[in-house]
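Quick illustration, no need to memorize.
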Amino acid sequence: MSKKTKIVTSTGMEVRQKPLKLRIWNNRGHYLMFLPVFIFVLIVNYWPMLGIRYAFMEYKAGPAGPSWTGLTHFQRMFEASAFWDAFRNTLILSIVKLFLTTFASVVVSIFLNEMGNLFAKKTLQTIIYLPHFMSWAVVASIFTLILSPSSTGMLNGLLREWGILGANDSNIHFLATSSMWRPIFYLINIWKETGWGTIIFLATLAGISPELYEAADIDGATRFQKMRYVTLPALSNTIITVLILNLAKVLNLFESVFVLYNPAVYNVSDVIGTYIYRQTFSVARPDYGYSTAVGLFRSLVGCVLVLICNRASKKVRGRGIV
């Protein structure tokens, strides 16, 4: 006779639980329905993870098969100055971009919330949202045309018309100048992502009780004082939450950099994602083992960041992100 374990329900009642085999048999229909999904997840999400073994192998394009090398690729990675430059650039670009776009989203949200004309508010919101739905390839094409050093470049043309560039001065190659690339990158990201970021903050602003503003009016507060002492404190928890949730993704930078950078600005623009891409696809004989090792290192650091942000989220919001 099979043994039945005792469990206590939420009401405090003690009941006997059926054996696991019997429960599986009784619910066999549900398990059969779940089986295709389970197999799909295993094949699509987990089977490719077996490829991390190449991080410990010498595996280059060619007839020769992979051979075990241990931690050689990781040693090479930690000794490569180009890798550390890419790692540093990834952190700088991601974190600065995160803070700037969050700040811009908060400012735009507050001003949109203060607008009294509903039609103008909705029209402005639509215009601000539109860049988010453009692909990075389209955005890069637009700004490459605007910033082009050729005679068709709009910004160089304006600088000449305004007299900032003389007749004998050469056009400025904005995207190929190290000192200018990062500010341009930040401005493009603000232009593209600010509208989308305002959605969450406008939702928070819509939930602020009108009684708080009425009380501020009774106390004689100006519009600026109401923004400072009512609106911003109400947004503070949302701002912190957005920052925490996005800090976990700081290493996932690739497409926005890939479409804008070039060899002249690798020292300030090369990130881990583009570094891996070049090691794999931009060399005559790709070194799959080395690029896998770099990708594995990025994933491990990203996992640590997720755990840190999850702990911070539990302290701030009372619940984690995973």
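The chain has two domains: 1-44, 81-317.
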